[in-house]
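call fold target=RNA-directed DNA polymerase
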Amino acid sequence: MSILKGLLSKYTSLSIDNISNIIKKAPASYKTYRIEKANGGYREINHPAKETKTLQYALMEIIFKKNDVHPIAMAYKRGVESPTFENARLHKDYEYSLRLDFKNFFPSIKPDDIISIVKDSSKYEFDDTDYSDLKRICFRKNHIKGYQYGLAVGAPTSPIISNIVMYDFDEAMEKISKELDKSSTVTRYADDIVFSTNEKGICAKFYSSVRDHLNDQDLSLEFNEEKTAFMSRGTKKVITGLVISNKGNVSIGYDKKEKVKRKVYKYSKGDLEDSDILSLKGYLAYIQDVDPDFFDKLNIKYGADILDDIMSFENE
């Protein structure tokens, strides 16, 4: 019997035959939909079927959580209440920042990237069949990379797999950062890298060194040059969707604040659709974490009763 299927059966209480059927269908078991990005355009989400997701969660516990994630990897960090805010906060007091973005990050990560790590780190003696099953459970064929297997945006295993795969690259980035400026900092939030320093000209040197290092790796990753941004005090610094002011304050930014205020006003007049109320409710919960001062101002401006009504809204 397959070692991996035996472990999955023990963890999920599903039969081996049931698990085999789920694995067979897993790569094609995703529902695809699009969500609107805050800055325009759409992001494609591929949500796995319930049965596939059950096996993915099991693999997280059985295998993936045993592997190291580098400290500079900020996304999906356990124990951090608001990782997007924490990521921005680490850069707020620096004079200069560089933002880099990977193109098609999740789909570019391949089964072999994680399988090679599991082979070296796992206490289980998996065979080729086990690794083939792991691939089918955690990866899907995607059109972005010519229908090769890649991680899906929307699968619960994709974040932790990507962080494990990126460990050596994260380690190299931190080393480059400290060699250029001991007081600098670098973080990676999924596909988004931010480097910050107080020394002029260091951002360009970091960019050159990291790009050269990426080209020397076996990873199928490349930077999206259109999204590369050199930022400094006096210019708009946006990090993981949050705006850092010249004084080092972190907020959602003026444009988003105005949009939220318009929606709260429409709600107070009874002019907001149920779907928009649910969306606003979720975003207000996010604002409570990342921009509590603005949330307090909304309470003062529109009344605590209005905000409480929105936060307790349930779609019937």
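return ok
The two ends are 47 Å apart (CA to CA). The chain has three domains: 1-63+110-150, 83-103+167-250, 252-312.
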